[in-house]
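ok trying this again, last paste got cut off
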Amino acid sequence: MKTLKVLIILYNSKAVSTYNQEGVYKMAELMEIYKCESCSNIIEVLNGGVGELVCCGQPMTLLKEQDKNTEMLHEKHVPVMIEENGKQIIRVGSVPHPMEDAHYIMFIEVISEDKKFLKRKYLAPHEAPELELKCKCSAKKIARELCNLHGLWKGDINE
């Protein structure tokens, strides 16, 4: 079984920033996810600020949130909410996503619009790519998931 490498690191307000794809300096923001292209470590920003995220001697890559407007693969990656037996369940994709040793969803999460509420479920190969919400809050929220091959995806689950 492949080992899941996910690091969540808390940075002080003067430790995190990077350049965007256009080479423009920007601060890292709350809940952005970065990946090291050398060792595949993954981190999430818990408190944005200035500085550069570096791993293995090189800048880390910001994972952009892809969505239903992404040309390919969206039907297997965009999180959707369904009601089933009176429960709210977040599933990855309108078409089931593979959950194999070499290709799987690493985690699913739900985030409130104000970013004060987060529920995350880590997954391993062969597990069902879904997350049950225990409470039925009416606040606007999005869901994100991380595919080990195809990156970070989001879906507006209030649609």
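PB: full thing came through this time. The first helix runs from residue 74 to 77.
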